Task: structure prediction
Amino acid sequence: MTPFFQKLPWISLSILVLTYTTYGFTLPLSPLPEVEGFQWHRAYTMWAIAAALAVFFAALLTAPLRSAKTLLAAWSKTDLGILIAAVGFAFTAVLAISQIYIFATGLILLSAGSLARLDIQTAGYTERQAFWILTVTSLIGLIVGWLMHYYRALLGF
Result:
């Protein structure tokens, strides 16, 4: 094994794969509104959104926080910025509570990704390497979950 692979945090990456595998396995079971004549579009759209979400979470976890800190500091200096932040927080809280299943799923995915990101950072990888490691690991988990769901009759569940 090369040193790149030797210092990978295998336990936290395994947790990330397991989390995304579970998400990929249960994703087709989620209730979605029926659209007559567009059944195959719905399935592909759902998987495209899930893959985009995995890439977005990887980007979110590896993005430098310096620019976000500067932006938040600028917004918090004005009364209008504080008002918009309070209304936005209240709206997000209501949305999270009303859609708790979706919110909890996203929170679990972010938690597993955060654990993997911290271990990757501790191992000394760059931000770009961390992004690609998280992205590939998450997409592998999604693909394994999709395959498990697709072949679940053969697997016996």
Remarks:
- Helices lie at 3-6, 10-26, 39-62, 66-75, 79-98, 100-123, 127-150, 152-155.
- Residues 74-124 form one domain.
- The first helix runs from residue 3 to 6.
- The mean pLDDT is 83.
